[in-house]
Amino acid sequence: MRNDLSELDEIRVARDPVAQFAAWYGRARAEVKPLPHAVALATATRGGRPSLRMVLLQRFDAHGFVFYTNYRSRKGRELTLNARASLLFYWGGLERQVRVEGRIVKVSRRESDEYFATRPRGSQLSAWASSQSEAIAGRSALERRFEDLARKYPDRVPRPPYWGGYRLVPEAIEFWQGREDRLHDRVLYRRRANGRWQILRLAP
């Protein structure tokens, strides 16, 4: 498999899109600063009204791409009603994009607990303090809530029951490589009904 800045070839790419993503992500982690794991997450209401925001990829494997958030946030509410989403990674310095589309499932409580325990204490407290996406009286109210929680949990901070992980189970993954004269390379992996991946080259 070849992975350089100048070529994305449907013949030479990995047969498994997760392996292809791992190769590109490894390079992004080595060369893209800051936040190579930042990714745009698109969700939509049941009626199809879209919204978009940045989240952080925490891990990925053959089962999907995992991120964490407040289940009561706007994205959480939308995913409850419409469990389909899209991720877009953009690494401008490498002239690369990866788009992932699929269905969303929650990770297990154990996975959420284990990840939450690794977060800095301040981030743990903020997960309790913030009613994400809700209107608040002002920053001072948020800071007071944070201070109250710091006193309530002087040692271990438990995971809020409304905070945890989602996994996007991919049905399509597209790799985009910038090329001269806007003759960009685009390779799409599309999951067939039998679970195998079809590989297609798309026109730029």
What is shown here, in short?
The protein is of the alpha+beta class and 204 residues long. The protein contains five helices and nine strands; from the N terminus they run H-E-E-E-E-H-E-E-H-H-H-E-E-E.
Give short descriptive properties of this protein:
204 residues; Pnp Oxidase, Chain A; 9-stranded antiparallel sheet; 5 helices
CATH C-level category = Mainly Beta
Give average pLDDT, whole number. 95
Compressed to H and E, one letter per element, the order equals HEEEEHEEHHHEEE
How many helix segments?
5
Percent range of helical residues: 25-40%
CATH superfamily: Electron Transport, Fmn-binding Protein, Chain A
CATH topology: Pnp Oxidase, Chain A
Can you tell me about this structure?
This protein has one domain: Pnp Oxidase, Chain A (Roll), CATH 2.30.110.10. The two termini are 22 Å apart. It has five helices and nine strands. With 204 residues, it is an alpha+beta fold.
What layout of secondary structure does this protein have?
Blueprint: H1 17-31, E1 38-44, E2 50-56, E3 59-61, E4 64-70, H2 74-81, E5 84-91, E6 96-106, H3 109-118, H4 121-129, H5 139-152, E7 163-177, E8 185-191, E9 197-202
Antiparallel strand pairs: 1-2, 1-5, 3-4, 4-7, 5-6, 6-7, 7-8, 8-9
